[in-house]
């Protein structure tokens, strides 16, 4: 383990800002939700009927997880945002671990480190320790934040520990995925697919009847273990041994797998291509599709499965909030004040899906920057390919793929309700609602292109916009944030069909701004020095 301390300090220093932004964003959500408890349940005496109503409602269980205690702010916070924050913490853990392992190896930094007096497994172990330290800090912040909000100290410790250990599981997933392939992008895709499957499994297990054998699958999903430990509800500490044990197993497997592979490779090596390029690769657009098709297929499958699953919940939606008027108010606000709760539910779900596809658009656009930093763009642009054509090949994927996906997602989400009601018109209504939000997606992509064209080092700003929009969508209504703060997103001014009437002015203005950002971004990409990026 020569050099372990040095590499841990180096990894922490290189990633301190990256991790600090993640930790701050995750931490703020938790105590802020606890402070909103009295707005939702002003009289704790009402908590009993509310718990019974929520426990028996498959829709709410699938969306937010099982409610074990709503008689105080702590239990309410665990139910309302606990699973969501734990899942996002898993994303943080995966991205940080792959960034410190396979991405460094792919960039040649690990080879440089190993040229010194450093043990074979030291870079991997150091990366895992840095990521686990970030998880531990998150746990401490959650514990301190909840205790500071006046919740029970024991429950706060269980909540923070559960959050940290859930994220730690995905440190292990990221470390193991990083050993499987020679590509950091593929490793991220594998690990995030595991996280997505775990979340869908949790939603499926929570959404079925209590006596169904499928309910037992909740014990298979790591993102459920924190809630099953029951913070603030007679804590079951032994449940937290599950994520701790799984983390240890995954890290041990990663170390063992690293010992069996060559540097820069993995058990799943990239397949050799055909001796000659096909006609598809004769254009920049074909090359961009070839590079990104795996990412597109993965996101497409995950999003469409989610849309079908979440849409199927609407068939039991009519009786959801009979005993919970305050929660009905929150959903109505998330759904643009809908009179029909089903319509409000569609609007709320579309507001989340549209952010997912916006994030996909930024990821697809980010490949353009990766090609530049890897030196591949320089090779392509040394031929007769124009810069705007090369950038446009990735930009069109960032615009077209999210457009198609949000429309398809809206249609699939509405199909179960259309079948139940015998009214196919609901499909058209929901697809129209999805289409009305598209200019916001294009604006996010345009902002990404503008930054990539002129200031590629500030590309994270576009992700910050998506992150803030997600916070506003998920808990903005719950926290009763000021309207001016809720409107600081690219989607706030767009009409939310079918709850609201169609308003063409904000749609056209947002689309025009998006087009202007795209044009300015392409101009910048054509003019700036790639080597200086």
UniProtKB/TrEMBL annotation:
The chain crosses the membrane at residues 78-101, 122-145, 157-178, 190-210, 237-255, 296-321, 341-362, 397-419, 431-453, 460-481, 501-525. It comes from the Bacteria. Keywords: Membrane, Transmembrane, Transmembrane helix. This is ABC-2 type transport system permease protein. It comes from Georgenia soli.
């Amino acid at each position: 383990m020569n050099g372990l301390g040095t590499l841990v300090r180096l990894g922490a220093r290189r990633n301190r800002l990256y991790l600090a932004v993640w930790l701050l964003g995750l931490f703020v959500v938790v105590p802020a939700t606890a402070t909103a408890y009295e707005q939702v349940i002003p009289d704790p005496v009402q908590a009993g009927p509310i718990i019974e109503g929520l426990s028996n409602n498959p829709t709410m269980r699938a969306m937010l997880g099982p409610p074990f205690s709503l008689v105080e702010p702590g239990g309410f916070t665990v139910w309302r945002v606990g699973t969501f924050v734990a899942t996002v913490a898993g994303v943080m853990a995966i991205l940080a671990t792959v960034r410190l392992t396979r991405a460094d190896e792919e960039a040649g930094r690990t080879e440089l480190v190993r040229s010194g007096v450093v043990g074979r497994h030291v870079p991997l172990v150091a990366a895992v320790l840095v990521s686990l330290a970030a998880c531990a800090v998150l746990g401490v912040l959650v514990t301190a934040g909840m205790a500071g909000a006046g919740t029970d100290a024991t429950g706060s410790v269980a909540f923070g520990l559960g959050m940290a250990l859930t994220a730690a599981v995905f440190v292990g997933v990221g470390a193991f995925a990083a050993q499987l392939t020679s590509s950091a992008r593929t490793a991220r895709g594998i690990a995030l697919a595991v996280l997505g499957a775990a979340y869908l499994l949790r939603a499926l297990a929570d959404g079925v009847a209590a006596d169904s054998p499928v309910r037992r699958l909740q014990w298979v999903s790591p993102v459920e273990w924190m809630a099953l430990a029951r913070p603030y509800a007679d804590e079951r500490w032994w449940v937290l041994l599950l994520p701790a044990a799984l983390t240890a197993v995954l890290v041990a497997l990663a170390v063992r797998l690293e010992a069996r592979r060559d540097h820069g490779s993995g058990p799943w090596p990239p397949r050799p291509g055909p001796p000659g390029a096909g006609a598809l690769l004769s254009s920049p657009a074909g090359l961009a599709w070839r590079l990104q098709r795996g990412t597109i297929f993965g996101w497409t499958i995950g999003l469409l499965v989610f849309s079908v699953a979440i849409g199927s919940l609407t068939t039991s939606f009519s009786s959801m909030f009979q005993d919970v008027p305050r929660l009905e108010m929150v959903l109505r606000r998330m759904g643009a004040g809908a009179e029909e709760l089903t319509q409000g539910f569609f609007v709320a779900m579309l507001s989340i899906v549209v952010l997912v596809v916006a994030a996909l658009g930024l990821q697809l656009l980010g490949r353009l920057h990766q090609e530049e930093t890897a030196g591949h763009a320089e090779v392509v642009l040394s031929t007769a390919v124009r810069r705007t054509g090369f950038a446009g090949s990735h930009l069109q994927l960032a615009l077209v793929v999210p457009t198609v996906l949000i429309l398809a997602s809206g249609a699939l989400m509405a199909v179960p309700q259309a079948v139940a009601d015998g009214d196919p018109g609901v499909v058209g209504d929901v697809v129209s609602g999805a289409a009305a939000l598209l200019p916001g997606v294009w604006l996010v992509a345009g902002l990404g292109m503008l930054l990539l064209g002129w200031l590629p080092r500030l590309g994270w700003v576009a992700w910050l916009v998506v992150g803030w929009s997600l916070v506003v969508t998920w808990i903005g209504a719950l926290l009763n944030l000021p309207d001016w703060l809720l409107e600081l997103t690219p989607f706030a001014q767009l009409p939310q069909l079918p709850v609201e009437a169609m308003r063409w002015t904000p749609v056209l203005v947002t689309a025009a701004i998006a087009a202007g950002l795209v044009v300015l971004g392409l101009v910048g990409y054509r003019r700036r020095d790639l080597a200086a990026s």
